[in-house]
TrEMBL record:
Domain of life: Archaea
Enzyme Commission number, as recorded: 1.1.1.169
InterPro entries hit by this protein: 6-PGluconate_DH-like_C_sf, 6PGD_dom2, ApbA, Ketopantoate_reductase, KPA_reductase, KPR_N, NAD(P)-bd_dom_sf
Keywords: Coenzyme A biosynthesis, NADP, Oxidoreductase
Substrates-to-products reaction catalysed: (R)-pantoate + NAD(+) = 2-dehydropantoate + NADH + H(+); (R)-pantoate + NADP(+) = 2-dehydropantoate + NADPH + H(+)
Boundaries of every Ketopantoate reductase N-terminal domain copy: 3-143
Name of this chain's protein: 2-dehydropantoate 2-reductase
CC annotations in GO: cytoplasm
Organism: Haloarcula limicola
Ketopantoate reductase C-terminal domain segment(s): 172-287
Pathway: Cofactor biosynthesis; coenzyme A biosynthesis
Function: Catalyzes the NADPH-dependent reduction of ketopantoate into pantoic acid.
Family according to the record: Belongs to the ketopantoate reductase family.
The UniProt record lists the keyword Metal-binding: no
C-alpha cells in the first residue's frame, strides 16, 4: 500500500515511520524536517528505536492508496485542498478535535474515514521523532457502520505492527476523544504542566468538570456518552500519559496556534445549555493566542 502522510509533525512522522516498515510511505511536511528525512532517513527513538526510509516531500504525490491526515485541525482546509489533486482510494484523519472529516470529505472524491490515535510522539529535531508511548489507533466510517475501506486500512496498520481497531461506532468514539482532549489539553497548556498533574487535587476536578460538560453536550446531540465514562476515560489517559506534555502545551510552548476552536470551542458552540468550564478554558486560551499574535 502507498500511504501519503499529510502533516509530518510528531504524530504524522511517528505513524509514517512505523508504516514504512511494511508499506511505501511519502511524508508530506515542511523543511528542515523533510530535507533531513530525505538526506538521512527518519530516526525513531524511545519506545522502539529504528531508522525508517520513507520518501519525504513538501508536495503531495499524484496518486496514493491512502492519505493519512495528521495536521493541526486549523490546517485541515489546506490539507483537503492540497490532497484534492491526488488520486486516492481512501483518506483517514487521525487529528484532534471535531469537524475534520467533513472538511476533508467536502474536497475529496474517496471514502473519508474517522480515526483517533493515542500513540505518544514528539519531534526532537529535524529527522528525529521520539516515540513516547505505545497507544492505539481506532478507525472506521465517519458516520458509523461497516466500511471495506476501514477494514483494508486496519489490515495495513496491523501489517506494520500498529495497534489498530476497526470500529463501527466512530461518532461515539470521536465524542469520547473530544471529552478527553477538552479535559486535558487546555488545562495542561494554561498551567504549563504534564498530563499527570491532572491525576489529583484541583487539576483532577477541573478535568472531570470539563469531561462531564462535554458528555452532556454529546447526549444533547444524540450520542450515548455518560458522565462516568467521559470521566473514567479521561482519568485513564491522564494515568497512561502522565509524563506527556499535551499537544496544546507543546503548541503554547513553541508559540504555535492551538486547536482550541476544534476542542473546547467546539463544545461551547454545540452546547444547548451553559458549559462554564469549557467556556472559561476557551476564553483563556484565546486570550493567550491574542497576546501571542500581538507580540
Ligand atoms: O492532544 C494530546 O496531547 C493527546 O491527544 C492526549 C490524549 C491528550 C495525550 O496527551
Amino acid at each position: 500500500m502507498h500511504v501519503v502522510v499529510f502533516g509530518a509533525g510528531s504524530l504524522g512522522s511517528l505513524l509514517g515511520g512505523l508504516l514504512a516498515r511494511a508499506h511505501e510511505v511519502t511524508l508530506v511536511g515542511r523543511d528542515p524536517h523533510v530535507k533531513a528525512v530525505r538526506r538521512d532517513g527518519l530516526d525513531v527513538v524511545g519506545v522502539e528505536e529504528f531508522r525508517a526510509e520513507p520518501a519525504a516531500d513538501t508536495a503531495v504525490p499524484a496518486t496514493a492508496d491512502l492519505a493519512l491526515v495528521a495536521v493541526k485541525s486549523g490546517d485541515t482546509g489546506d490539507a483537503a485542498r492540497a490532497l484534492a489533486d491526488c488520486e486516492l482510494a481512501a483518506c483517514l484523519s487521525v487529528q484532534n478535535g471535531m469537524g475534520n472529516e467533513a472538511t476533508l470529505a467536502a474536497e475529496l472524491d474517496c471514502p473519508v474515514l474517522a480515526g483517533t490515535c493515542s500513540y505518544g510522539a514528539r519531534l526532537d529535531a529535524p529527522g528525529t521523532v521520539a516515540f513516547t508511548g505505545r497507544g492505539e489507533v481506532v478507525l472506521g466510517a465517519r458516520d458509523g457502520g461497516p466500511s471495506t475501506a476501514a477494514d483494508e486500512v486496519g489490515e495495513a496498520f496491523d501489517a506494520a505492527g500498529i495497534e489498530a481497531t476497526v470500529a463501527t461506532d466512530m461518532p461515539t468514539r470521536l465524542w469520547e476523544k473530544l471529552a478527553v482532549n477538552a479535559a486535558i489539553n487546555a488545562a495542561t497548556a494554561l498551567a504549563r504542566v504534564e498530563n499527570g498533574a491532572l491525576a489529583d487535587g484541583p487539576g483532577r476536578e477541573l478535568a472531570a468538570d470539563a469531561a462531564r460538560e462535554t458528555a452532556r453536550v454529546a447526549r444533547e446531540r444524540g450520542v450515548a456518552l455518560t458522565d462516568e465514562r467521559a470521566v473514567s476515560l479521561t482519568e485513564r489517559v491522564v494515568r497512561d500519559t502522565a509524563a506527556n506534555r499535551s499537544s496544546m502545551l507543546q503548541d503554547v510552548e513553541t508559540g504555535r496556534p492551538t486547536e482550541i476552536d476544534a476542542i473546547n470551542g467546539y463544545v461551547v458552540e454545540r452546547a444547548a445549555e451553559p458549559v462554564p468550564v469549557n467556556e472559561t478554558l476557551t476564553r483563556l486560551v484565546r486570550l493567550w493566542e491574542r497576546g501571542r499574535d500581538a507580540r
